Structures are given as structure tokens and as C-alpha cells.
Amino acid sequence: MSTIEILHPAGKVQDTGSIQMNAIPSLKDGRVSVIDNGKPNFARLAAMVGEKLRASHGVAEVSIHRKENPAVGATTAILDEVSASADLVLCGSAD
Fold first, then answer.
1. 11 in the Ramachandran plot: left (φ > 0), alpha (ψ -120 to 50) or beta?
2. Among 12, 26, 38, 85, which residue has the fewest nearby CB atoms (within 10 Å)?
3. Which long-range contacts (CB under 8 A, 24 or more apart) does 25-28 make?
4. Is 77 a residue whose pLDDT tops 70?
5. Mean per-residue pLDDT, 10-31
């Protein structure tokens, strides 16, 4: 007779203590690049975030780079362009 292992999906919560973040420099006149993962509604979300960053933080430029589709990574060309032209990079997902 074989054994079946059953795992509880909730898992265990671990106390990570305090987390230190690097200081975020001012975004005034900064350049923000967004890597659009190709999921539905992400382009809309990215546009809204870009407008908010311009209005609230004085960001000068927001560029959006779209991946081929959600199942593949960003191409080397996209990564090279983003790394050369951005002060902050955002990537994410939406449905």
C-alpha cells in the first residue's frame, strides 16, 4: 500500500523582523520605465501609474516597453534600453 502526503495550503507565517529598504531618491525630473508584461489591463494600469508619478512626484518621462507575451521574459534589447534610460523601473501584472 502506498502513502499519500497531504499538504496544508495555508503554510506557516514566519516573522521576518524589520526590513531595511534603500533610500529612494527624488523622482523630480526623473525617468521611469515600465516593463509591460502583456497581461490584460496592464497597459491601462501602467498609464495611470505614469500619470500619477508625473503629477505627484514631478517625473519628467515615463516610457513603456511591452514584452512579447506574459509567458516569456523581456528581451535583451528591452532590458538594455531600460537600463540605459531609466532612473526607476516598474514591472508588474494585472488582469
1. left
2. 12
3. 25/87, 26/57, 26/58, 27/53, 27/57, 27/58, 27/59, 27/87, 27/88, 28/57, 28/58, 28/59
4. yes
5. 81
